Amino acid sequence: MKKRIIVTIMALAMILSLSSLVACNNDDNQAKEKVEINVALYMLTNSLEPLSEDLVAANSIIYHVLDRLVEFIPDSIEWKPGVAKSWTPVDDRTMDFEINLDYKFSNGENLTMDDVVYSVMRLKEVPKTASVGDYIESVTYTGNTLRIRGTEADNTLMHKILSRAVIISKSYVEANGDDALYFNIMGTGPYKVTEFTPGVSCTIETWDGYPFAKPQIDIINYSLIFETTPRYIALETGQIQFTHNLTRREMAMADENPNLSTIDGGSYLIVWLLMNCENPPFDNVNVRRAMAYAFDRNGFCSLSGGRMMVETPLFIGASDFMRVSPNLPGFDLDEAKRLLEAEGYNASNPLSFTLTCNTESDPGLEMFQSALRTIGVDMTIDPVEFSVWLPTEGQGNFQMGYSPNPNIGNHPLTDIDRFDINRLGIRNAARYYNERAQEIIDQFRFIPQDDPRLKDLANELTDIVGQEVPYIPIFIMEENSAMDSRLSGVVLDNRIISFRNATFTG
Questions:
Q1: H or E stretch at 197
Q2: CATH assignment of 37-42+189-265+480-504?
Q3: How far apart, in Å, are the Cα atoms of 248 and each of 304, 306, 308, 311, 470?
Q4: Which of 285, 283, 294, 288 has its CA nearest to residue 375?
Q5: What are the structural domain ranges in the chain?
Q6: What pTM was computed for the model?
Q7: Contact 243, 40 (CB under 8 A)
Q8: Are 502 and 490 in contact (CB under 8 A)?
Q9: Cβ distance 472 to 270 under 8 Å?
Q10: Predicted confidence (pLDDT) per residue in 35-87, tens digit
Q11: pLDDT tens digit string along 321-332?
Q12: Closest to 148 measured CA to CA, from 187, 171, 188, 121
């Protein structure tokens, strides 16, 4: 009997021991299981080069891999610490930053002050950021204190620089060349790129050795689904967990689905028509005003599921400065025809031009084309790829363009760059010049942002631009997004979709 009891106890002990081992193995398996999500974007970048690409697709991937000196607070022009843990103004064009050298690159190398200097100075070398780099006089350091000195006093100077200056490894780029920037970017952020097929897909994963708290989501797979409806269907059927740039109709459908959640958000990415003010026919202000009268913004924005119309090309997102000018034309085809006839355009001398758009032709553009035909104007629509449009826009080789354009660094006051003769090309894409507008712009940069004179200058500039119409503002490209309801903590901030602090419980 005693022997049987002993055997029974030993058997129970073995069972308990095996159960504990199985439980431990299960715990280990659960601990090793990675959290993974799939994200579909309407456009996927052909390059991860952080200064050449500024698309949502590029920024939203790069933001997880690279850090900036400071982070920007959504819906604010304030900063919070990034690689720089604090900052102190020295004078009206110089600022010191205390750098946190606890950061590491994903290859295990420590961040150095030389890396930081190199990263900021690259703004001067890359054509797309050269206009921002021109603001930089010098970047130096003593110990872990970085000093950036600008070429001139400008109340948005540091914001422009810091919005683009992402931190990269000097030695990594020098050793690996262009591939280190375009296809295999590496940084101090919590993720690293593990797969990238240009224009098709990208995968990023967290890396061992990251010195700070790791994100809860370990793997993010990005893919391209251009059309809105297929993206939404992929979300609804569980193939993806997040998508963005949805129409209001699809957002309403997502709101009614208990398995989905939504984020409504605008941005500072304004879509507009721009006219080349240097060359005929749009060097004539009355022709530009005729185009504004012929453009039905309400009708345009009602298409494609509805879009958020804007009525001013200036200071979107700055409530203290944004104002609708009474000078900006509304929809009036009769007035458009009258202005054109006054400038000599009629049945025997019709106005004819090409509109270049950096996308597939929008139904709203075809509506505009039809309206112009009713008053004898022949407009040809020429869709081109974004990579073709950028140099076309920058060099002024167009007549009219249809394009989205953000302000710089999520800072509404940088909108004045669009009308500054010293910013021709990518910023002043319409190649516009007005003597009084230029005087205002030159004053505007050097007046503190809390000075009441700034608002008066903003109002006057808005009225001048409304009268001369180098741009016809149309709509804000909304950052409307929908996601699996198990996904939370996603942050949308002016062309960046951040999963750094997101969680997924699937």
A1: strand 191-197
A2: 3.40.190.10
A3: 9, 6, 10, 20, 29
A4: 294
A5: 37-42+189-265+480-504, 67-175, 269-476
A6: 0.76
A7: yes
A8: yes
A9: no
A10: 999 999 988 888 898 888 766 667 789 889 999 999 887 666 778 999 999 99
A11: 888 999 999 999
A12: 121
